[in-house]
Amino acid sequence: MASAIPGPREIPESQYDLTTYWGRVKHSAEVSDPRMLFVTQDELEKSKKLVADYKTGKVVTMNAELWHAKRVLDSTLHPDNGEPVLLPFRMSSYVLSNLVVTAGMLTPNLGTTGTLFWQITNQSLNVAINTANANKSHPLTTTQLISSYALAVTASCSVAVGLKSVVPRLQSISANTKLVLSRLVPFAAVVSAGVVNVFLMRGQELRKGIAVFDNDTGAQVGTSQVAAAYAVGQTALSRVINATPIMVLPPLVLVRLQRRLKMSKVTETVVNLALITATSFAALPFALGIFPQRQTVHVHSLESRFHGLKNAKGEPLKVQFNRGM
């Protein structure tokens, strides 16, 4: 991200109003724009120089070229170390990286072997994305990473296979309802495993706390476990919100189309993939915009040791923290 470029002057966080939902949606659409995957090394270096010039005062005001440079850095660099995130695991590649896996999980009439394969593949991708974008101040050990991965895979496979075997045995519902429920099994598995994954991968933050900063001056005022709980909890909820339209709408629409139209297996696969692609690109910015990236709270919402902090006017201090991905 542009924040990783050193300099005494901070660059504006966005050209949109991030205190509003619509502003965050537009900002998220830019960061997750897949066209950012085609950025060349020369363009990346040029963007770094432009942002550095602004941060050191050589450029006074933001302009279209600078906003584009910031967009390039925000979609390419890790905010902690300033290094490029591995290309398949960048937010700009999120939809494309997940496309094949999502299509696999939502394949109609998928057997147990196929269910297990795609759930394991999905959690492998999730762990890779989480690791590539993780907060570098609290890195996971190899043992913790393997443990998190194993538990997430166990959760997703258990839910997927368990519900897959339970739904056909339900006696009090119609065949159509059973069909709909069977198509929603991957959603339940992905959501449960996604929540488990977030809490496991960011366990260090919950135990040690995350940095909180004076909302007016930007100075760090300490670390807070309560702020970490807010950050991790909201991230887990955002994963659920993000998965809901992508994992729910395409299978329900496909069921409706199958009732009305006669489709070959090839046509069904193409339609399913098209539905997943369209929903993924449309839904991602709206899901990412639900919660602000940088949260602002009163100190009274944190641990008691923060309650006495005041701003320059003598009022209870407001602090902010980075929610993370």
Report on the architecture of this protein:
This protein has 11 helices and 4 strands. With 325 residues, it is an alpha+beta fold. It has a 4-stranded antiparallel sheet with strand order 2-1-4-3. Strand 1 and strand 2 form a beta hairpin. The two termini are 13 Å apart.
Entry keywords:
single chain, 325 residues, alpha+beta, 11 helices
Morphology: globular
Q: How far from one another are the termini?
A: 13 Å
Following the backbone from N to C, one meets helices and strands in this order, namely HHHHHHHHHEEHHEE
In terms of structural class, how would the helical and strand content be classed? alpha+beta
Kindly report the average pLDDT value: 84
In spatial order, strands of the major sheet run 2-1-4-3
Tell me roughly what share of residues is in helical segments: 55-70%
Model regions low in confidence, pLDDT < 50 over at least 5 residues? none
Number of strands: 4
Q: Helix segment count?
A: 11
Described by strand count, sense and barrel closure, the largest sheet is: 4 strands, antiparallel
Rg (C-alpha, Å): 22 Å
Strand content: 5-15%
Q: Give the total of domains.
A: 2
